[in-house]
Design goal:
about 5% helix, single chain, Pnp Oxidase, Chain A, 6-stranded antiparallel barrel, 2 domains, 6-stranded antiparallel beta barrel, mainly beta, Thrombin, subunit H
């Protein structure tokens, strides 16, 4: 399966991962599971049977118990759930009665949902902007990298060490931008996630903002 990494957001928060997996379990979403072994690629279809976040284990039940292919312990397995295109990686810790016990993932990739068409610039983007926080601190971030934009907002990458300067719901003012018509525009930060640049491996904060009126 080909995946455009630039359209996915990495989720590292345990609470966010717990909520996401719990919703997948409650709504009985079908999950494709595959594993690369010395004998080739193993593919099977499962649902989440139970989740124990105390031990960090997830029990998977194949849809077809009789014909399900057995996954090998201690070899990474990959998951694809159709619910908003969720992808994650884990390890089989135990097999019992046709079911698989796996470790809880440390990272989940989720496809971003778009309400309106956006121009995708991606991690190779040369589009940048500078903005200041509209609060008592008035922090300035002069070198945010624009990775997508629409008439309603933008997505951008900033350095991890700027994390303490921003939060969800914070109002910002765009000071300058390589995109036309954005200078002086106000916006609200709607989401903040950790993003990995799959071209370099570097981690950044991915910040989504929505334009607002004065």
């Amino acid at each position: 399966m080909e995946i455009d990494d630039e359209l996915y957001v990495s989720i590292n928060s345990r609470n966010d991962i717990r909520t996401l997996l719990t919703n997948i379990q409650k709504e009985s979403y079908v999950i494709k599971v595959w594993q690369k072994t010395d004998l080739g690629r193993i593919l099977t279809i499962v649902r989440i049977d139970s989740i124990d976040f105390t031990t960090g284990e997830i029990l998977l039940k194949p849809l077809d118990m009789k014909n399900a292919k057995m996954l090998e312990p201690d070899i990474p397995i990959y998951f694809y759930a159709a619910r908003r295109k969720v992808i994650f990686k884990a390890v089989v810790s135990k097999r019992a009665k046709g079911r698989f016990l796996i470790s809880s993932p440390e990272e989940v990739k989720v496809e971003e949902m778009r309400r309106t068409p956006r121009k995708q610039y991606g991690y190779r983007s040369y589009q940048t902007l500078a903005f200041a926080t509209v609060d008592k601190f008035s922090f300035e971030i002069p070198d945010a990298q624009i990775i997508d934009a629409s008439e309603h907002g933008i997505g951008m990458l900033i350095r991890m060490n700027d994390k303490s300067k921003i939060h969800k719901g914070l109002k910002i003012k765009i000071l300058s931008s390589t995109l036309p018509g954005q200078e002086g525009v106000l916006a609200i930060i709607r989401n903040i996630t950790t993003a990995t640049n799959f071209l370099t491996g570097d981690k950044h904060l991915r910040v989504g903002v929505e334009f607002v009126e004065e």
